[in-house]
Write a structure and sequence with these properties.
single chain; 54 residues; mainly alpha; 0% strand
């Protein structure tokens, strides 16, 4: 296995996991009442930024 193949595999795994996480966020925010959706989405996005910076 070459380094190129390994990096491609890691990239596909990360893409798949982020896509799954994005779908979970959309599902969670769609279940919230209309007035709470913006606050729920903002809370999740701030959490993602904190994790990305940490």
């Amino acid at each position: 296995m070459t380094l190129d193949m390994l990096l491609r595999g890691i990239a596909w795994f990360l893409l798949g996991s982020w896509a799954f996480f994005a779908l979970r966020i959309l599902l969670y925010t769609s279940e919230q009442p209309a007035g709470e959706r913006a606050r729920a989405l903002r809370k999740i996005l701030l959490g993602l930024i904190a994790v990305a910076l940490g």
